[in-house]
Amino acid sequence: MSVEEFRKGFGEDWQLSQFWYSAEFAARLAHLMAPIVSRSDVLVFISSPTAYVGFQHAYNRKQTYLLEYDRRFELIDAEEFVHYDLEEPLRVPEHLKGRVDFAVVDPPFLNEVTSRKVAETVKELLAPKGRVLLLTGRSIADAACGIYKEVADVELKETALKVEHAGGLANAFGAWASWPDAEKFGSEGT
């Protein structure tokens, strides 16, 4: 399923703070991720269904999971869909605990409470050398980076990636990541 097909089939639910990425951004993100993840890596997309759809449309790989509250997305791939509830941040499948090599995270609400809950989930999921890509609003970024360091022991650096949403948002978004040279991720030439 392409991102355009996804957007037509599943409308954004603003009550769940769903704001889809543009098809171009989802494709670019997938293209940027592909060379830095191995075929054996376990990937999760937390609250970022358009990023998941864009990646799977381009690469259709196993061990790639969507953790999302909205159960409509189970229709995309029931085996890779994991119902995720912020109110139960540690309730994740046993087979993913401590095994996730790369997590793409876009918390649904731009506040510290949500950031802390998602960071708890990331801590539960991440493998010892796991990497995180956080896509979030610039208004919460400093606090979120501090929370991820405190809760999940993940040091995040701002990347060069420009985040684009389909409908445009009033909030400016950016991307922060946890691997060496992460600040180059999304720059021209990468």
Short summary of the structure?
One of its GO terms (cellular component) is cytoplasm. By secondary structure, the chain is α/β, with parallel strands linked by helices.
What layout of secondary structure does this protein have?
Layout: H1 3-9, H2 23-33, E1 43-46, H3 49-59, E2 64-68, E3 81-83, E4 100-105, H4 112-125, E5 126-137, H5 138-152, E6 157-158, E7 173-177
Parallel strand pairs: 1-2, 1-4, 2-3, 4-5
Antiparallel strand pairs: 5-7, 6-7
Structure description:
The chain is built from five helices and seven strands; from the N terminus they run ααβαβββαβαββ. The chain has 190 residues and is an alpha/beta fold. It has one domain: Vaccinia Virus protein VP39 (Rossmann fold), CATH 3.40.50.150. Helix 2 crosses helix 3 (49-59) and helix 4 (112-125) crosses helix 5 (138-152). The chain is globular, with a radius of gyration of 15 Å.
Number of strands: 7
Give the percentage of residues in beta strands: 15-25%
Return the average pLDDT rounded to an integer: 87
- What is the succession of H and E elements? HHEHEEEHEHEE
**What Rg is obtained from the alpha carbons, in whole angstroms?**
15 Å
Structural class per helix/strand content?
alpha/beta
According to CATH, what is the class?
Answer: Alpha Beta
The CATH topology:
Rossmann fold
Sum up the overall morphology in one term.
globular
| Main sheet: strands, sense, barrel | 7 strands, mixed
How would you write the strand order of the largest sheet?
3-2-1-4-5-7-6
- The CATH superfamily is identified as Vaccinia Virus protein VP39
The CATH architecture can be given as 3-Layer(aba) Sandwich
Poorly predicted regions are none
Q: Helix share of residues? A: 25-40%
Number of domains: 1
Number of helices: 5
